[in-house]
């Protein structure tokens, strides 16, 4: 804490991992002897830079850009870029730290990193978004590359932004280096299923949890927070598997639609028009309501999927879910549940699937995109989705097997933290003190 003052989200993420590692450290003194934990908590490299750009009115704007290259023991740094006014070093470091263990859990050869900017894309024209992305890449290109560091999207960064970033990288370097970014469009090096992967993967993970109880999504009531990329495709997959998503949200409130969210309308409002969720009730055929300023967790459900942002589900939200009989919470977002919420779920016997396991499908499919780029190949949607489902199945089983091995059966949080940690720690031991 003294070494990284004020970085509260980073402290929270580190504490959550360290809290799980007691049994591992007791069993493996070699991790302590070689200071693996202390090395893991210190990024290999952090880059902070000025991003100057000109808005539509001709005013010069200055934002701050970040790339934290956290750990490359398993492969090139890999992790998204976030554009949101709340971005500062503490958020980028928490995301980069989580990414190390998540990427290890996928079993793919990718290290951990994260980046972004305090740029607020809301209300910006397409031209402003393009000029901002070009300005950011004008510095970032020095630090990224197929074998070095491979960014992708995150909050505020989707296919459009990745296109502008990739265009500028190609222009500056004069190289068509497809493997430098993931989340690309299908016509220019992207992979099928990458857009859907994080949301779909979270739902595949929950499907595995349900299978352990001989249940399925059929007829289950589900609440999803957020209405961006992860939320949208989580809703799509739940519906395909027979569940009913009764509510979703944005940062201003939530929509409740007892008949089930109209996904075509949601995509039209959020992804095509880039509009606000409060326009939904006026345009849908059912009796949907928009409830401003309230947490979506007050809507009764069997399964909750927080898919918006960090610390969005606190103790009060957890209390509402538990009181209404929710039995599974799976994190589609990164660290959306506060430590208090996680404690309450554990005490109440609610199954809790942490983001580093449940939302790993996005980065896993990014690694599949890198594989396709490296072999100059393209796979079908069916094949890629099948690979994603297999990966989520295997992460699920690995979390459970590890939790069993370390004496905490059924604890997905401990299983994910320990399995991710041992995988990357063993690689770090093998590579020596670097
Ligand atoms: P998007 O930008 O597509 O959507 C973000 C959603 O979350 C929007 O509905 C937004 O509402 C809401 N939101 C953002 N910030 C806040 C806030 N401070 N308070 C309340 N709501 C907020 O992002 P993604 O869907 O890509 O990402 C969502 C989460 O999933 C993040 O935690 C991200 O790190 C994580 N994730 C994403 C992956 C990916 O592949 N995209 C991979 C793995 C994890 P509004 O429009 O009102 O701001």
From TrEMBL:
Record GO biological process: glutamate biosynthetic process
Residues annotated as site: Important for catalysis: 154
GO MF term set: glutamate dehydrogenase (NADP+) activity; nucleotide binding
List of residues binding substrate: 78, 99, 102, 153, 366
Organism field: Actinophytocola algeriensis
Complexes and interactors: Homohexamer.
NCBIfam families: PRK09414.1
Family: Belongs to the Glu/Leu/Phe/Val dehydrogenases family.
Positions that bind NAD(+): 198, 229
Active site, UniProt feature: 114 (proton donor)
Name the record gives this protein: Glutamate dehydrogenase
Key words, A-Z: NAD, Nucleotide-binding, Oxidoreductase
Record-annotated Glutamate/phenylalanine/leucine/valine/L-tryptophan dehydrogenase C-terminal domain positions: 191-432
Gene3D superfamilies membership: Glutamate Dehydrogenase, chain A, domain 3, Leucine Dehydrogenase, chain A, domain 1, NAD(P)-binding Rossmann-like Domain
Cellular component, GO annotation: cytosol
């Amino acid at each position: 804490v003294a070494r990284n003052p004020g970085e509260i989200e980073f402290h929270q993420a580190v504490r959550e991992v360290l809290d799980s590692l007691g049994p591992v450290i007791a069993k493996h003194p070699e991790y302590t002897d070689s200071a693996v934990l202390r090395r893991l908590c210190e990024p290999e490299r952090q880059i902070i830079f000025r991003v100057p750009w000109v808005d539509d009115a001709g005013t010069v704007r200055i934002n701050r850009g970040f790339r934290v290259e956290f750990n490359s023991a398993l492969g090139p740094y890999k992790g998204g870029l976030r554009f949101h006014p709340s971005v500062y070093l503490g958020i980028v470091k928490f995301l980069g730290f989580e990414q190390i263990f998540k990427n290890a859990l996928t079993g793919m050869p990718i290290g951990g990193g994260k980046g972004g900017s305090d740029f607020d894309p809301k209300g910006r024209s397409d031209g402003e978004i393009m000029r901002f992305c070009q300005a950011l890449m004008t510095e970032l290109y020095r630090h990224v590359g197929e074998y070095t560091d491979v960014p992708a999207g995150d909050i505020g960064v989707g296919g459009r932004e990745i296109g502008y970033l990739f265009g500028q990288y190609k222009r500056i370097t004069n190289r068509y280096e497809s493997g430098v970014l993931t989340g690309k469009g299908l016509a220019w090096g992207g992979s099928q299923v990458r857009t859907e992967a994080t949301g779909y993967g979270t739902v595949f993970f929950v499907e595995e949890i349900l299978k352990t109880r001989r249940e399925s999504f059929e007829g289950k009531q589900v609440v999803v927070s957020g209405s961006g990329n992860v939320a949208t495709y989580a809703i799509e997959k739940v519906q395909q598997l027979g569940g009913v998503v009764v509510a979703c949200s944005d940062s201003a409130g939530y929509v409740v639609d007892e008949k089930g969210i109209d996904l075509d309308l949601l995509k039209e409002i959020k992804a095509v028009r880039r509009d606000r969720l409060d326009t939904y009730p006026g345009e849908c055929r059912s009796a949907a309501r928009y409830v401003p300023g309230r947490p979506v967790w007050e809507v009764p459900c069997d399964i909750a999927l927080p898919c918006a942002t960090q610390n969005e589900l606190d103790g009060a939200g957890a209390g509402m879910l538990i009181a209404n009989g929710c039995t599974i919470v799976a994190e589609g977002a990164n660290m959306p549940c506060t430590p208090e919420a996680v404690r309450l779920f554990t005490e109440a016997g609610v199954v809790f699937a942490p983001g580093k396991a449940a939302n790993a499908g996005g980065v896993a499919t990014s690694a599949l995109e890198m594989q396709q780029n490296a072999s100059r190949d393209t796979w079908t949607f069916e094949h890629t989705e099948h690979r994603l489902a297999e990966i989520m199945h295997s992460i699920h089983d690995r979390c459970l097997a590890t939790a069993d091995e370390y004496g905490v059966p059924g604890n997905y949080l401990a299983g994910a933290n320990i399995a991710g940690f041992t995988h990357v720690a063993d690689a770090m031991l093998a590579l020596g003190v670097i």
